[in-house]
Amino acid sequence: MRYPARTRDTGEVNTSAPRIGLLLDVDGPVASPVSRSVRPSIIRHLVTLASAGWPVIFNTGRSDAFIREQVMQPMMAAGLPEGVRLHAVCEKGAVWFSFDGTGSDQPQVDPELKVPGDYAEAIRDLVAAKYSETMFFDETKLAMVSVEQHLQVDNSDYLTDQRRFDADALEQMSLAGMGGRRLEHAIPDARGAVAFRIDPTIISTDIEAMGVGKDLGARRALSLLEADGTPVPQIWRTVGDSRTDYAMADELHALGYDVAHVDVRPADGVPSTPYPVLTAGSLIHDDAGAAYFERWVAMAAGEAADDAAVV
Hints:
Layout: E1 5-6, E2 13-14, E3 21-24, H1 40-51, E4 56-59, H2 64-77, E5 86-90, E6 95-100, E7 103-104, E8 108-109, H3 117-131, E9 135-137, E10 145-149, H4 155-175, E11 180-182, E12 185-187, E13 196-200, E14 204-209, H5 214-228, E15 235-240, H6 246-254, E16 258-263, E17 277-278, H7 285-300
Parallel strand pairs: 3-4, 3-15, 4-5, 11-13, 15-16, 16-17
Antiparallel strand pairs: 1-2, 5-6, 6-7, 6-8, 9-10, 10-14, 11-12, 13-14
Protein backbone atom coordinates (compact mmCIF):
# COMPACT_ATOMS: atom_id res chain seq x y z
CA MET A 1 0.00 0.00 0.00
CA ARG A 2 1.41 3.40 -0.98
CA TYR A 3 0.41 6.91 0.00
CA PRO A 4 1.44 10.37 -1.27
CA ALA A 5 4.31 12.16 0.47
CA ARG A 6 5.78 15.61 -0.18
CA THR A 7 9.36 15.90 -1.37
CA ARG A 8 11.92 17.71 0.75
CA ASP A 9 12.76 20.54 -1.61
CA THR A 10 9.62 21.51 -3.51
CA GLY A 11 6.72 20.42 -1.28
CA GLU A 12 5.21 18.60 -4.27
CA VAL A 13 3.51 15.26 -3.81
CA ASN A 14 5.70 12.28 -4.59
CA THR A 15 3.28 9.43 -5.17
CA SER A 16 6.04 6.83 -5.52
CA ALA A 17 7.25 7.25 -1.93
CA PRO A 18 5.64 5.04 0.73
CA ARG A 19 3.93 6.67 3.68
CA ILE A 20 5.38 4.84 6.66
CA GLY A 21 4.40 5.13 10.31
CA LEU A 22 7.25 5.64 12.78
CA LEU A 23 6.85 4.44 16.37
CA LEU A 24 9.90 5.60 18.27
CA ASP A 25 11.41 4.88 21.64
CA VAL A 26 13.19 8.07 22.75
CA ASP A 27 16.17 7.18 24.97
CA GLY A 28 18.71 5.60 22.64
CA PRO A 29 17.45 6.05 19.09
CA VAL A 30 16.31 9.69 19.42
CA ALA A 31 17.95 11.10 22.56
CA SER A 32 21.51 10.28 23.56
CA PRO A 33 21.55 8.08 26.69
CA VAL A 34 24.70 9.98 27.71
CA SER A 35 23.64 13.63 27.27
CA ARG A 36 19.85 12.94 27.47
CA SER A 37 19.38 15.44 24.63
CA VAL A 38 18.57 15.20 20.90
CA ARG A 39 21.07 16.22 18.25
CA PRO A 40 19.87 18.97 15.84
CA SER A 41 20.12 16.74 12.74
CA ILE A 42 17.63 14.26 14.22
CA ILE A 43 15.27 17.13 15.08
CA ARG A 44 15.45 18.38 11.47
CA HIS A 45 14.82 14.90 10.08
CA LEU A 46 11.80 14.40 12.33
CA VAL A 47 10.34 17.73 11.17
CA THR A 48 10.91 16.73 7.53
CA LEU A 49 9.29 13.32 7.96
CA ALA A 50 6.26 14.65 9.83
CA SER A 51 5.86 17.43 7.26
CA ALA A 52 6.01 14.83 4.49
CA GLY A 53 2.97 13.09 5.96
CA TRP A 54 4.71 10.25 7.81
CA PRO A 55 2.99 9.64 11.15
CA VAL A 56 5.65 10.21 13.84
CA ILE A 57 4.75 8.90 17.29
CA PHE A 58 7.01 8.69 20.32
CA ASN A 59 6.46 5.62 22.50
CA THR A 60 8.57 6.14 25.59
CA GLY A 61 8.93 5.66 29.30
CA ARG A 62 9.87 9.33 29.53
CA SER A 63 7.53 11.96 30.96
CA ASP A 64 5.54 14.42 28.90
CA ALA A 65 7.74 17.19 30.35
CA PHE A 66 10.87 15.55 28.94
CA ILE A 67 9.32 15.19 25.47
CA ARG A 68 8.18 18.82 25.50
CA GLU A 69 11.63 20.09 26.46
CA GLN A 70 13.91 17.79 24.47
CA VAL A 71 11.78 17.00 21.41
CA MET A 72 8.73 19.24 20.92
CA GLN A 73 10.33 22.64 21.59
CA PRO A 74 13.37 21.94 19.38
CA MET A 75 11.07 20.72 16.60
CA MET A 76 8.99 23.89 16.86
CA ALA A 77 12.18 25.98 16.74
CA ALA A 78 13.28 24.00 13.66
CA GLY A 79 10.11 24.99 11.77
CA LEU A 80 7.49 22.35 12.55
CA PRO A 81 4.42 23.71 10.72
CA GLU A 82 1.08 24.50 12.27
CA GLY A 83 -1.30 21.62 11.72
CA VAL A 84 1.39 18.96 11.35
CA ARG A 85 0.55 16.89 14.42
CA LEU A 86 2.79 14.47 16.23
CA HIS A 87 1.81 12.27 19.15
CA ALA A 88 3.71 11.31 22.29
CA VAL A 89 2.78 8.24 24.29
CA CYS A 90 4.68 8.65 27.55
CA GLU A 91 5.30 6.56 30.66
CA LYS A 92 4.85 3.38 28.58
CA GLY A 93 1.25 4.13 27.67
CA ALA A 94 -0.05 5.67 30.91
CA VAL A 95 0.23 9.30 29.69
CA TRP A 96 -0.21 10.83 26.22
CA PHE A 97 -0.46 14.17 24.40
CA SER A 98 -0.23 15.64 20.89
CA PHE A 99 1.51 18.70 19.48
CA ASP A 100 2.14 20.71 16.32
CA GLY A 101 4.05 23.87 15.41
CA THR A 102 1.86 26.01 17.69
CA GLY A 103 2.25 23.93 20.86
CA SER A 104 0.65 20.99 22.61
CA ASP A 105 -2.57 19.94 24.23
CA GLN A 106 -2.82 18.86 27.86
CA PRO A 107 -1.47 15.43 28.81
CA GLN A 108 -4.01 12.71 29.46
CA VAL A 109 -3.40 10.24 32.30
CA ASP A 110 -4.93 6.79 32.68
CA PRO A 111 -6.03 6.72 36.35
CA GLU A 112 -5.97 2.92 36.39
CA LEU A 113 -2.21 2.94 35.72
CA LYS A 114 -1.02 5.32 38.44
CA VAL A 115 1.36 4.20 41.19
CA PRO A 116 -0.12 5.09 44.64
CA GLY A 117 0.97 8.47 45.91
CA ASP A 118 2.03 7.22 49.35
CA TYR A 119 4.43 4.76 47.77
CA ALA A 120 5.84 7.49 45.52
CA GLU A 121 6.54 9.59 48.62
CA ALA A 122 8.33 6.63 50.24
CA ILE A 123 10.57 6.25 47.18
CA ARG A 124 11.32 9.98 47.12
CA ASP A 125 12.40 9.74 50.76
CA LEU A 126 14.44 6.59 50.06
CA VAL A 127 16.43 8.29 47.30
CA ALA A 128 17.08 11.35 49.48
CA ALA A 129 18.24 9.22 52.40
CA LYS A 130 20.45 6.64 50.67
CA TYR A 131 20.98 7.19 46.93
CA SER A 132 21.14 10.90 46.17
CA GLU A 133 24.81 10.76 45.16
CA THR A 134 24.14 8.52 42.15
CA MET A 135 20.49 9.09 41.20
CA PHE A 136 17.59 11.52 41.41
CA PHE A 137 13.83 11.16 41.81
CA ASP A 138 12.04 12.20 38.60
CA GLU A 139 9.49 14.79 39.70
CA THR A 140 7.94 15.06 36.23
CA LYS A 141 6.25 11.64 36.10
CA LEU A 142 2.44 11.69 36.30
CA ALA A 143 1.68 7.96 36.59
CA MET A 144 4.79 5.90 37.26
CA VAL A 145 7.67 6.46 39.70
CA SER A 146 11.17 6.80 38.24
CA VAL A 147 14.70 7.39 39.45
CA GLU A 148 17.55 8.23 37.07
CA GLN A 149 21.33 8.36 37.02
CA HIS A 150 22.90 11.79 37.55
CA LEU A 151 24.64 12.98 34.38
CA GLN A 152 27.97 13.47 36.16
CA VAL A 153 28.00 9.96 37.69
CA ASP A 154 29.87 7.06 36.09
CA ASN A 155 27.41 4.48 34.80
CA SER A 156 29.15 1.60 36.58
CA ASP A 157 28.75 3.40 39.90
CA TYR A 158 25.09 4.01 39.16
CA LEU A 159 24.44 0.38 38.22
CA THR A 160 26.00 -0.78 41.49
CA ASP A 161 23.64 1.45 43.47
CA GLN A 162 20.72 0.57 41.19
CA ARG A 163 20.72 -3.06 42.31
CA ARG A 164 20.58 -2.00 45.96
CA PHE A 165 17.90 0.62 45.25
CA ASP A 166 15.72 -1.85 43.34
CA ALA A 167 15.84 -4.29 46.26
CA ASP A 168 14.87 -1.51 48.67
CA ALA A 169 12.07 -0.36 46.38
CA LEU A 170 10.66 -3.89 46.24
CA GLU A 171 10.82 -4.11 50.05
CA GLN A 172 8.98 -0.77 50.33
CA MET A 173 6.35 -2.13 47.98
CA SER A 174 5.80 -5.13 50.24
CA LEU A 175 5.59 -2.90 53.32
CA ALA A 176 2.93 -0.82 51.54
CA GLY A 177 0.86 -3.95 50.88
CA MET A 178 1.50 -3.78 47.13
CA GLY A 179 2.31 -6.88 45.11
CA GLY A 180 5.44 -6.27 43.07
CA ARG A 181 7.93 -7.87 40.69
CA ARG A 182 11.51 -7.19 39.65
CA LEU A 183 12.57 -9.36 36.75
CA GLU A 184 11.88 -12.95 37.89
CA HIS A 185 11.49 -12.13 41.60
CA ALA A 186 7.89 -11.50 42.67
CA ILE A 187 6.33 -10.64 46.05
CA PRO A 188 2.52 -10.98 45.81
CA ASP A 189 0.17 -8.90 47.94
CA ALA A 190 -2.21 -10.36 50.53
CA ARG A 191 -4.59 -11.48 47.77
CA GLY A 192 -1.80 -13.16 45.82
CA ALA A 193 -1.78 -10.46 43.16
CA VAL A 194 1.24 -8.75 41.57
CA ALA A 195 0.03 -5.40 40.24
CA PHE A 196 3.29 -3.44 39.95
CA ARG A 197 6.69 -3.93 38.35
CA ILE A 198 10.20 -2.59 39.01
CA ASP A 199 11.83 -2.20 35.60
CA PRO A 200 15.58 -1.37 35.53
CA THR A 201 17.25 0.17 32.46
CA ILE A 202 20.86 1.18 31.86
CA ILE A 203 20.28 4.70 33.28
CA SER A 204 17.10 4.47 35.36
CA THR A 205 14.55 2.38 37.21
CA ASP A 206 10.84 2.70 36.45
CA ILE A 207 8.25 1.55 38.99
CA GLU A 208 5.02 1.04 37.11
CA ALA A 209 1.68 -0.71 36.89
CA MET A 210 1.83 -4.13 35.27
CA GLY A 211 -0.55 -2.94 32.54
CA VAL A 212 1.90 -0.47 30.97
CA GLY A 213 4.36 -1.37 28.24
CA LYS A 214 5.44 -0.64 24.71
CA ASP A 215 2.60 -2.83 23.39
CA LEU A 216 0.07 -0.61 25.18
CA GLY A 217 1.92 2.37 23.70
CA ALA A 218 1.49 0.92 20.21
CA ARG A 219 -2.26 0.58 20.72
CA ARG A 220 -2.45 4.13 22.07
CA ALA A 221 -0.57 5.32 18.99
CA LEU A 222 -3.09 3.78 16.63
CA SER A 223 -5.96 5.23 18.68
CA LEU A 224 -4.44 8.72 18.53
CA LEU A 225 -4.16 8.56 14.74
CA GLU A 226 -7.74 7.33 14.43
CA ALA A 227 -9.01 10.07 16.79
CA ASP A 228 -7.26 12.65 14.59
CA GLY A 229 -8.87 11.22 11.48
CA THR A 230 -5.40 10.40 10.15
CA PRO A 231 -5.29 7.39 7.81
CA VAL A 232 -3.34 4.66 9.58
CA PRO A 233 -0.53 3.42 7.31
CA GLN A 234 -0.12 -0.28 6.64
CA ILE A 235 3.69 -0.05 6.81
CA TRP A 236 5.48 0.70 10.11
CA ARG A 237 8.97 1.02 11.51
CA THR A 238 9.46 0.66 15.24
CA VAL A 239 12.76 1.77 16.79
CA GLY A 240 14.24 0.96 20.18
CA ASP A 241 17.36 0.12 22.16
CA SER A 242 16.16 -2.64 24.50
CA ARG A 243 14.48 -6.01 24.31
CA THR A 244 11.25 -4.59 25.76
CA ASP A 245 10.98 -2.28 22.73
CA TYR A 246 10.30 -5.27 20.50
CA ALA A 247 6.80 -5.29 22.04
CA MET A 248 5.94 -2.38 19.72
CA ALA A 249 6.63 -4.44 16.63
CA ASP A 250 5.11 -7.56 18.19
CA GLU A 251 1.83 -5.70 18.72
CA LEU A 252 1.70 -4.14 15.27
CA HIS A 253 2.55 -7.46 13.63
CA ALA A 254 -0.18 -9.21 15.64
CA LEU A 255 -2.66 -6.57 14.44
CA GLY A 256 -1.80 -7.30 10.82
CA TYR A 257 0.52 -4.42 9.94
CA ASP A 258 3.65 -4.70 7.80
CA VAL A 259 6.35 -3.89 10.36
CA ALA A 260 10.13 -4.01 10.72
CA HIS A 261 11.95 -3.22 13.96
CA VAL A 262 15.14 -1.17 14.12
CA ASP A 263 17.36 -2.26 17.02
CA VAL A 264 19.94 0.41 17.86
CA ARG A 265 21.58 -1.71 20.59
CA PRO A 266 21.63 -5.23 19.13
CA ALA A 267 24.53 -6.37 21.33
CA ASP A 268 21.92 -7.23 23.96
CA GLY A 269 20.78 -10.00 21.65
CA VAL A 270 18.34 -10.02 18.75
CA PRO A 271 15.40 -12.38 19.40
CA SER A 272 13.76 -14.53 16.77
CA THR A 273 10.84 -12.56 15.30
CA PRO A 274 8.25 -13.08 12.54
CA TYR A 275 9.18 -9.66 11.09
CA PRO A 276 12.49 -8.17 9.87
CA VAL A 277 14.94 -6.70 12.39
CA LEU A 278 17.17 -3.92 11.04
CA THR A 279 20.46 -2.72 12.51
CA ALA A 280 23.03 -0.10 11.53
CA GLY A 281 26.24 -2.10 11.44
CA SER A 282 28.63 -0.83 14.10
CA LEU A 283 26.50 2.24 14.86
CA ILE A 284 24.46 2.23 18.07
CA HIS A 285 22.11 4.49 20.04
CA ASP A 286 21.40 7.87 18.45
CA ASP A 287 24.20 7.37 15.89
CA ALA A 288 22.16 4.45 14.53
CA GLY A 289 18.93 6.40 14.93
CA ALA A 290 20.37 9.35 12.98
CA ALA A 291 21.42 7.04 10.14
CA TYR A 292 17.92 5.63 9.82
CA PHE A 293 16.20 9.00 10.06
CA GLU A 294 18.43 10.27 7.26
CA ARG A 295 17.56 7.23 5.16
CA TRP A 296 13.84 7.69 5.77
CA VAL A 297 14.04 11.32 4.70
CA ALA A 298 15.56 10.10 1.42
CA MET A 299 12.77 7.51 1.10
CA ALA A 300 10.09 10.14 1.75
CA ALA A 301 11.59 12.25 -1.02
CA GLY A 302 11.70 9.30 -3.40
CA GLU A 303 15.52 9.33 -3.41
CA ALA A 304 15.90 5.88 -1.82
CA ALA A 305 13.89 2.74 -2.45
CA ASP A 306 14.10 1.06 0.95
CA ASP A 307 15.86 0.92 4.30
CA ALA A 308 17.16 -2.64 4.21
CA ALA A 309 20.64 -1.27 4.97
CA VAL A 310 21.88 2.16 5.98
CA VAL A 311 25.62 1.48 6.16
